[in-house]
Amino acid sequence: MTQPLRVGLVQQSCGTDLDANQRASEAGIRDAAARGARLVLLQELHRSVYFCQHESTDLFDLAEPIPGPSTQWLGALAKELNVVIVGSLFEKRATGLYHNTAVVMESDGTLAGIYRKMHIPDDPGYYEKFYFTPGDAEGRGFTPIATSVGKLGLLVCWDQWYPEAARLMALAGADLLLYPTAIGWNPADPPEERGRQRDAWVTIQRAHAVANGLPVLVANRVGFESDPTGQWPGSQFWGHSFVAGPQGEIVVAAGEEAEVVVVDVDLERSENVRRWWPFLRDRRIDAYGDLTRRFRD
């Protein structure tokens, strides 16, 4: 019988001090590894504040190449601690070409692979289309990344709302779905609206677990981050990082403060769940052609 995989989620707040952010991430990784985690997931864009609340060409200075300083740092940590680490970077692919990119560092310190965020939002307080080019086949598309702990179906934040993305990762053999995330409330929203938003966020990702018979790992940031331009009230990132099992059951969940959560995930359950609920077998792939259309008139 395969041993459960112990995973860790690092949920942290971020500020304008990049070194302090890195120290917090490293402390979280070390904490998770000391508690036996073999796979550690960081939140989206953990190196800096969530800078997409406004548009400024100066902020492209935050971007870095891959490989580069962050992959070197994460790789050294992965090798030292003998863990697989998933990080999230603002990638400078070329002059004028930037991506929101997740990286997977193998436990020997090497770069196992990258995933460039495919769905890019453009909403008040989330002006990502100004900064990020959508991923493509060269950014691995919806292809799992093979590691010593399994095939990781890596997706990023806004990708988490799209069942097609999760399904394609499952069809390509992912053992787990992972979502580094940066999502929060508008402070002006009333409590009932905040509850609806967070519940929808949890529900859609639990549904991906159910529909694909796979564990889902989600790491979100916490803390209030203001918009320096004053055009937007800022974002109160709600945290609530969680792990769901292959039937959508919540295995562990964090609160709304900085926290490192560690839990065992039984990957063998996916095999049994898919035998009980053979959704992949019963798909009517002959009837789904219109899914490639924007809309059916």
UniProtKB/TrEMBL annotation:
Entries under Gene3D superfamilies matching the protein: Carbon-nitrogen hydrolase
Gene Ontology molecular function: N-carbamoylputrescine amidase activity
Domain CN hydrolase: 5-267
Record keyword Cell inner membrane present: no
BP GO annotations: putrescine biosynthetic process from arginine
Pfam families named among the record's database cross-references: CN_hydrolase
Keywords: Hydrolase
PROSITE patterns: CN_HYDROLASE
SUPFAM superfamilies tied to this protein: Carbon-nitrogen hydrolase
Protein name: N-carbamoylputrescine amidase
Organism: Sinimarinibacterium flocculans
